[in-house]
């Protein structure tokens, strides 16, 4: 949109309808505008980021970091940013290359970074995706964090470093997230699972942190959109300020067992399926931020139609992995019936 954020779902559908129906006006050649590139954009980005997080502090001196840039756009920005960290950095795939970018496997790269972290004795490892939006984190023991673990670690660090923080999280986050916020006195604003809605909420005044469950993190005081470079710098700053190794924070996280199931659903049946589900639930406690989330003992279940595929998703959390899987299958059976 005009602010550089993802457009919302309604606007997306409107554009798609206009495009497929060809209901748009053809622009004449003299009316076509120009594309301008702002001067010194990388330098300005670096200056704004440094001003936001105060990475010039000498506390970051000697911090050891392994970083994989995935042959992507981060290779243009990270040299300037890393120069302000004053850290000891080992960088892998540090240049932009289309062929390399296409062949990148996030999981494989993360395992390679984990090996380098263990071999070099680094305090942190990270894989920045090619678009510099999503971040995969590796702790000091070489353990690759899942996306949910990364979310919970950053949430813990943010709520610990900022008093009475306000955060925005998808409605499908595990119960460990509200537990962390409650302990720290922070408040949560729940959002839809879509990136567009998460960015929209993150742009509201007072939000200190927002996160998806796919490795995308938002720092609204800097930029209300996914930014892996900013996330990395913020993480380093908070780790250094806290003085604890990342692995210790990971071990202290509450357990979270979430299971996912998909049920094929015809497009024309999605509305009927959701209405039928609500009727079957009766007066049970529900949350209707996105889809239907049913609060259960020790967990929950979320039923949400896919906006792009003829599928209905079911997520469920329970005290054990087996319980989460059984709960997901239980609600998937309700949809099939």
Describe what you observe in this structure.
The chain has 337 residues and is α/β, with parallel strands linked by helices. 42% of the residues lie in helices and 20% in strands. The chain has helices at residues 9-21, 41-53, 74-85, 98-103, 106-120, 147-161, 176-184, 195-202, 228-242, 246-251, 270-281, 321-336; strands spanning 64-68, 88-92, 124-128, 135-138, 166-170, 187-191, 207-211, 217-219, 223-226, 258-264, 286-287, 292-296, 299-305, 311-317. The strands form 3 sheets. Strands 6-5-7-8-9 form a 5-stranded mixed β-sheet, with helices on both faces. The protein has a 5-stranded antiparallel β-sheet with strand order 10-14-13-12-11, covered by helices on one side. Helix 7 links the parallel strand 5 and strand 6. Helix 2 (41-53) crosses helix 3 (74-85) and helix 6 (147-161) crosses helix 9. The chain starts with 8 loop residues before the first helix and ends with a helix. The mean pLDDT is 91.
Question: What's a quick, concise take on this entry?
Answer:
With 337 residues, the chain is an alpha/beta fold. The chain is 42% helix and 20% strand.
Instruction: Give the helix tally.
Output: 12
The helix fraction, in percent, is 40-55%
- Poorly predicted parts: none
Mean pLDDT: 91
Shape: globular
What is the H-and-E element order? HHEHEHHEEHEHEHEEEHHEHEEEEH
Query: Strand content of the residues, in percent?
Result: 15-25%
How far the N terminus sits from the C terminus, by CA atoms, comes to 41 Å
Biggest sheet: strand arrangement: 6-5-7-8-9
Largest sheet: 5 strands, mixed
The structure class reads alpha/beta
What is the alpha-carbon Rg in Å?
Answer: 22 Å
Number of strands: 14
